[in-house]
Every structure is written in structure tokens, then in C-alpha cells.
Amino acid sequence: MTNSLELEVPLKVARHQIERVGLAYFNARRKIAPGGVERSESDEKLEGVGEEVEISYLKSLDPKEWKDQDHYSVLGLGKLRFEASDDDIRRAYRRMVLQHHPDKRKAKGEVVINDEDYFTCITKAYEILGTSKPRRSFDSVDPEFDDSLPSQTEIDNDYFAVFNKMFKLNGRWSERPQVPEFGEVDAKREEVERFYNFWYDFKSWREFSYLDEEDKEKGQDRDERRWIEKENKAARIKRKKEEMSRIRDLVNLAYNNDKRIQRFKQEEKDRKAAAKRAKMDAVQAQKAEQEKAVREAALAKERADKAEQKRIEQIRIEREQQKKVLKKERKTLRDKVKDCKYYAKNDKDQLKHMEGTEKICETFNLAELQALNKAMESKGRESFVAALQTAEQKIAAELEEINQTQAKKLATATAVAPKAAGVKEVKKGELWSNENVQLLIKAVNLFPAGTAQRWDVIATFINQHSGSGGAQVLARDVLNKAKALQNSDHSKSSLKTQANDAAFASFEKSKKEVQVSNDITIGEEAPSQESKENVKQNGGAHPNQVNNQKPKQNGISTPSAAAAAPAAGAGAGAAPPAAPMTNGTGGAGGASKTWTKEEQALLEQAIKSYPTTTPDRWDRIAACIPNRSKKDCLRRVKELVELVNSKKEAQAAVK
Question: Where would a tag sit more exposed on the chain, N or C end, judged by fewer CB atoms within 10 A?
Fold first, then answer.
């Protein structure tokens, strides 16, 4: 408050001389024009925008050739060019208007021709650059832009500087605002890949409508304007393709010479090679492990096989030794019993004891035989008889056990398997008639051991050839009957008696036929002289001799001997007697005699030697076999074919 009161006191004013210096003075002085006129703020803002344009350049412009002029240079924006903002363009144009407007120039006394004045070019430059679409068209064909590609020498000298500049210049055409940088030699792989992906998928906004040769607005009618637009469009598309091709060539040139790409490829190659080597090493290691395991397994197997072979060999040696000892003990037993005349009181006991000796040898083991031989040295007959009883008991026990096992199996099969429809249960005695037994013996010889499903095949064969009605033979029945026949006493078999009776009857029949044939021969008249001459021509034999060799008179064939030897089959006794043999001529009423092995071999060889295409085949085959005619050969082949077919049918029925 004191200070304010003091100011109210009137002061004495004195004049001083002050030198005009300082920032405030110069700022105030700058606002005054050279002619003493104060300048406005807008004039101050125009200073520093663009550069001064020489008047000689402006006067050299032809308003009629405005398309060929550089609009940025006309407005003094030759350095900023496409980077100049809209405000920069407006300020540059205003400055040019203030300096070069025809009215101001006329006021200074300059002669101005409106139609040819360069101010028209300034106005046209502002019309184009001041509007976005025309400016975009002019920027696309900027005369200061270099469309050429760098040479290989420039690339080799400074690769990264050259392409950094080229991609920065061409990045102005990108539709996407953020253009990735080219980078340097130490750029990361992700950055380099992103850069090339961007440029290989480059989208350019550059268009060439500024270079249209014709203006469609100048067309006189609609058709002419359409034609002008079509021509302009075709030219634009062509220039656009050329531009995109230029961009692609630039990118390819950079990519092919990029040391970073080469380094990345080499690194990728090395990585793949390392991965491949690692994989190969792993495979080799795995393979080595497998081979090692295989070798170890093979060695272990070899050692195990050797140990097993050694064990088997040891067992075999022990068995051989045991067999030798057992054989020796059996021989000792047989010799002792033989020396003592089998401890028999009569012939019947001798036969029984001979058979019993073999039973003892078969049923007793080594220890029992050794004990028996030792006991027989002191006790003799008593020990032998006791051993014989023991052998009989063992055989009976084994048979009883076999029968019980078979009965259990049969009961189990009967309980599990359903009964076949239409099959009647047949008693054991009715099932195995003499006919079925004969068929069993024949089938056992026809289908030897080793035949696939042998007992099923034999059962089917019997069922096919049996005359009984509903009695069906099964495989287990066939097996039980075969074992029973094998273990039975053949001397008490009824088959042998039946075979002998049939053989004797056949012999009596053949004997009667021979007697009747001789009676007929004696009752005939003596042969005439003509027949004797014929006989001499045929070989000089007497008619009676011819009759003895080939007795065929009045259609009666004289049989030779009626062989009645019973045939053994499957250990079941004698087979039916063989059919009576004829003289080999193959008479109409008689059966051919049995073929020997030699004749059968000759027949087979002759059939192979003379194929079916041979003329008179069977005559030639018969000529190769002595005492056999063509009919005999044909009949034998037919019998063999029927036999083979029946065998195949039996096997097929089982399958």
C-alpha cells in the first residue's frame, strides 16, 4: 500500500537519448515494408514456403503444353513434391499470385498478354495439385521419379544402400500405409521374410490416367466419348501391367542378390542336413541295437540248441543203452525158457508158453526182466508161470483201461453232439457185418497211413459201398473195430473160416467146370483134314494141344487153377478168395487173370509211349504186353479209373 501511495505523488519527467537495439525492435521493424508500409501476418506466413521461382523459367512455359510441365516446380515446390501438404500448395499458390498476378504486373508497367501469359500455367498447376484425384494422377507419372532398375555394378558396390533407396522410393505407391523397411545385413530372418512377402504381394495405387491421349469430354457425341474412354482404359491397363512387372523384376533382383537369403538357405540346408544326420545316426544306432539283440538272441538260441541237442543226445544214448540192456535181458529170458523147453508139459502148454514169453518181453520193463531172470535161476518154472500171469493181468488191465476211455469218449460225444436226423441206433453186432468187415479190410489197404483224415475217409467209403440200409459207420467205430481186429486172436476169427469155405466152394465149382469142358471135348468128332492143314499153318500144333493151350469151344472158357489163398488185410484175418484166372484171351463170360507188377509197369509205360493221337493205339499197347489182348488192356485201365474215382469220391465226401 505504501508503494501505491508513493506513485500518486507527481514526478518530474526527463528526456533521454536511447539507442534502438534488441529483439523487440527488430521484430517491429520487420513488419514494415521497404516502402514504409507495414506488412500483414499472412505475408509473414508465406515466407519460407517453397523456393523462389526464376522468372525466366516461368516465361518459358507454354500454356498450351501444360501437360508436359512440372506443376510442383511451377509453384516452387520442386523439392517437396509429393510430400507437400495441401496447405503448402495453397500457400505456395497464394505467394505466386501475389508475385505474378497480371494486375500487379500491369501496375508495375509490364506488358501482359492474357492468352499467352505464364500465369495460366500457375493457375493450371494449382487446379491439378489442389484437387486430390488430379494430383494423384500427376503423382503417378511424376517426371522426377526414376523407373529404372539398378545395374549389377551398383548392386555389387553397395547392395543395401541401393535397394534401401529403391524400395523407399517405390514404397510411395503402396496401398497399405505401413511399408516394411529393407533392412541391413544383420536383419532377422522373420523381418526379411515379412519384407519379401509384402513386396511379392504388392498392391499399387499408381494409375496412368494423366497420360490419356484424348480427353473424352472433347468428344462430340456419346459414341465418340465411349470410344475415347475405351482406348484410354486399354492404355492404362497396359501401363499398369508394365508397372507391376517392373516391381516384380525389382523384387526378384533384390532377392536373387540378397546375401541374407543365401545365408538363410545355407542355414536351412545345414539344419536339414544336421537333422538328417541325427536321424541317420539314430537309425544306425537303432539298427546296431537290433543287430546286437539279434546276435545275442542267436547266440543264446545256439547255446540253448546245443544244450538241448546235448540233452537229447544224452537221453538217446541212455535210451540206446537201456534198449541194449533190455534187449539183452529179453534174449536171456528167451534163451533160458528155450533151454528149459518153455517149462511145458505138453505141446499145448509149449505153444501157450511160447506166446507168453513174448507177452512177458513186451509188457515187462528192464527192472522186472532182470528180477525175473534172477528169480528163474533158482525157482525156474514157478517164477516163469508167475510172470506169465502178471503179463496176462497187465494186458487185461490195459485193454480194460482202453475200453473205459473209449466208452467215456463215446458217452461224451453222444451227450454233446445232437443226433443226426433219420439215423437209427444200431447195435454193435449188427453194425459190423461180414460185408462191412470186408469193406474195412479193403479200405485200410486202399487208404494207407498218412492219408488226410484217414478214418473219416474209410468210414465214408464203407457207407458208400455197404449194402445195409440205415446203419451209418462213424470214424470212431472204424478206429475201434480196426484196433479190435488187430488185438484179437486170428486163429478164432470167423473170417478165416468163411474165407476158407468160400475158397473151397470156388474150387469145387471150377473143378466141375473143367470136368464138363473135358466131357464136351471128348464127345466131339475128330478134326477133318482141312482143319489139320489149318492147324499146321497156324503153328503145327495138334488140335488137342490147341485145346489145352486155348480151350475155347462152344463159347465155354475153361478156367485154370482156382486159387483160394486167403489174403491178409489190416491184421484181421484172411480176405475173400481171388477170382479164377482165365487163359488171358479175355473170353466173353470169364474174368481176366490177376495183373502182375511187371505187366502193370509195361502197361503204364506203353500208355505213356503212345499218346491218344497215335493210330491203332490200343493194338500197339497190347503188343507191348505178353499174353495180354487189347480188351484186357482196356478193361484194366477202366478198373484203375473206377478205383481212383471211388477214392476221390470218398475223400471229397469227408471234406
Answer: N
